[in-house]
Amino acid sequence: MSFDDSEACFNLRAELRESEQALKPHVEVGYGDFGDFQLVGHGKVTNSKCRQFVGFHGCIRGDLHNLVNLDGVSYGGKAYLKPHFHSCDKPSCPKCYKYGWAVREAKNIEARLLEAHKRFGVVEHIVASVPLRDYGLSFEDMRSNAVKAVFRRGVVGGVVIFHGARLDRFKRWYWSPHFHVLGFILGGYRRCRGCKKGCVDCSGFEGRTRKFFDVDGYIVKVLEERKTIVGTAWYQLNHATYKVGVERFHIASWFGVCSYRKLKVTPEIRKAICPICRHDLEKLRYFGANPEILSYFGSYSSCAKAGFFADLVEDGREVWAVDTRRGYTSSE
Length: 332
What we know:
Blueprint lengths: L2 H20 L10 E2 L2 E3 L13 E7 L18 E8 L11 H24 L3 E6 L9 H14 L2 E13 L5 E13 L19 H12 L2 E4 L6 H9 L3 E3 L8 E5 L25 E5 L4 H4 L13 E4 L1 E2 L2 E2 L1 E3 L10
């Protein structure tokens, strides 16, 4: 059999496997529910404080903002403001999962992978699809088999994010368990990305994944180059799946050279800073009457809010001051 024939056979088997999975009967008992599993953000709101505005962090050093940026704009005499909203940081909460829990988890994933990157190279985005024969396994066994599958193909470690469902062409979720991996490939993937040569007899990742496909039935693919670690992690987290009723279910977990036993990372305390003067942001109080500013107080937001600039002085008096009271904290 020629290379072209072998390659065509592999692609056909992979396509049939994916089509077979797509034709499996839906097992959900409600939108986003799949028996004991549920898509993140499809639970109950934790409490009335979820995504409620709690105040501004910012920088009121207007004298240091008198710099012209690349767009020819100067922010002299203005305060930089970053609104903060309460987050329960639970993956089940429909208000907080996307811009609370997922943001926090994505930042933690990025910090750990950046440390591992110093030793193991480029972080790649990999997907391991569970074969039909493993659908009846427990989550623990399913995850274990998926990790073994990526290990066989030369993935030496990383973080695994569980997805229990996919969208069909009618934008409906159907049960199709798979695992997204942000991790490191032995020898890297550069030689395979864009390669036009034969893969069946190659020792690179694409050759390995084809050889082991007939062994374990797992379709393991490397996706396109990611733009950022935190962005990729955040996107995969905000439509991940968790097991209902398990208090400490790990949607994202570490394996191989990135496991907690093998990779020690000293947590870095990251402070929010002003984009102009680079000083740390501080908790602020407002004493003015700007309708745009006042509209935040008592409001709720289900999305991310970017920082912005506002006048330090209104009607001849300063309206912003550092808040020294003991008050709110926010994980956002």
